[in-house]
């Protein structure tokens, strides 16, 4: 595959995640009203999807090491499309949660395989640059999803917004089926043998480079998830913005994220990985501190909150491509399993955060500030310590 085509296909595949989450966020208040659902139940349509996404990766990763990336991606995309159509037809919050969980399982197959493709074809440092380009494409999708979701839900309701998710999945399925060529050269016939799976997972968890980059990835995603999960209630219910206005705010965040992925590639070339991560850690810490200052001094406005989050989102464009490629770097023969473990830990952090938020959202801005500040602290400390000590991967396979 040509490098440009590969990056496009990977962007479409990994882009399932922001399309599945960001596009429907502006529709959450209307969805809760139509289905007569509590805030906690509505939150579970997001956290349930992410938990299923995370857990399913533990199987999809070894499965893709055994049979290849292409068949797993195609099967996952087909499941995703069916589940997305089920979401549109849901008439109760319980049914919607069921289809969202199934959607998360299909998404796990696709994204786990897509991340592993980068390690199949590239060494870790070059893989970080390729992943950064892929994340730029993901950022474009994340940029367009919220305003599109806000526009569709405001004019035609949440069902139409979720139908656009199904159409995106179908288009991605067509592109992967038509253009994607198998990337794995050496399959592992024992990858699904339970003792082998446990052994590989243990090797992955014990590797200091994996732990450093996995903690970096999960903390970065924890901060982003906190912002996404609270955004509709903070901006619409507390600050009284419209769904479309929230969509444009989330879109601006995506533009900052795209900028971060471009900055990532520039910094990697000029100052190296360790210094790049250290600077991004400082940027994340700035966001956590700024949000707490605004909220505790009652200075918070919609503009102020957005500006305070920009350094975090910029850093996210650095943390994620380096973290995801770095976590699988030591495992060229078990990239699927390493990718799965990293993804599982990220989604576990998101699920725990979602559970905490479902009990903490109280009509104030404090849950947002506390959640982002916590993850920003973990992120900065990881960037300044573990990544500095163990950032250069040793091949374990």
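^ structure tokens above, recovered residues below v
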């Amino acid at each position: 595959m040509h490098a440009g085509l590969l990056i496009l296909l990977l962007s479409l595949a990994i882009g399932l995640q922001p399309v599945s989450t960001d596009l429907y966020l502006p529709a959450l208040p209307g969805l809760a009203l139509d289905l007569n659902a509590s805030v906690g139940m509505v939150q579970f349509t997001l956290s349930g999807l992410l938990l299923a996404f995370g857990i399913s990766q533990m199987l999809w990763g070894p499965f893709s090491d055994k049979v290849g990336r292409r068949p797993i991606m195609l099967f996952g995309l087909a499941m995703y499309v069916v589940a997305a159509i089920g979401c549109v037809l849901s008439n109760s919050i319980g049914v919607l949660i069921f289809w969202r969980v199934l959607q998360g399982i299909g998404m796990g197959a696709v994204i786990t395989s897509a991340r592993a493709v980068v390690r199949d074809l590239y060494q870790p440092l070059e893989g970080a640059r390729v992943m950064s380009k892929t994340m730029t494409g993901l950022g474009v999708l994340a940029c367009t999803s919220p305003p599109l979701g806000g526009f569709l839900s405001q004019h035609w309701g949440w069902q139409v917004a979720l139908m656009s998710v199904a159409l995106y999945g179908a288009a991605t399925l067509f592109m992967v089926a038509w253009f994607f060529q198998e990337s794995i050269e050496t399959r592992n016939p024992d990858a699904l043998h339970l003792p082998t799976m446990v052994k590989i997972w243990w090797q992955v968890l014990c590797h200091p480079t994996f732990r450093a980059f996995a903690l970096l990835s999960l903390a970065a995603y924890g901060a982003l998830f906190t912002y996404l999960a609270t955004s509709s209630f903070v901006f619409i219910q507390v600050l009284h913005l419209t769904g479309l206005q929230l969509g444009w705010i989330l879109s601006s965040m995506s533009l900052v994220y795209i900028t971060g992925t471009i900055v990532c590639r520039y910094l990697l070339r000029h100052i190296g990985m360790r210094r790049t991560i250290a600077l991004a850690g400082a940027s994340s810490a700035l966001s956590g501190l700024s949000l707490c200052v605004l909220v505790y001094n009652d200075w918070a406005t919609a503009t102020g909150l957005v500006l305070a989050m920009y350094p975090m989102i910029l850093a996210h464009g650095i943390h994620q491509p380096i973290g995801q490629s770095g976590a699988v770097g030591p495992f060229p023969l078990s990239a699927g399993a390493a990718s799965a473990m990293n993804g599982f830990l990220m989604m576990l952090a998101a699920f725990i955060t979602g559970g905490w938020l479902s009990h903490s959202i109280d009509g104030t801005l404090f849950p947002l500030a506390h959640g982002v500040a916590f993850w920003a602290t973990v992120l900065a400390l990881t960037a300044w310590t573990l990544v500095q000590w163990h950032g250069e991967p040793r091949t374990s396979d």
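Residues 278 and 291 are 21 Å apart (CA to CA).
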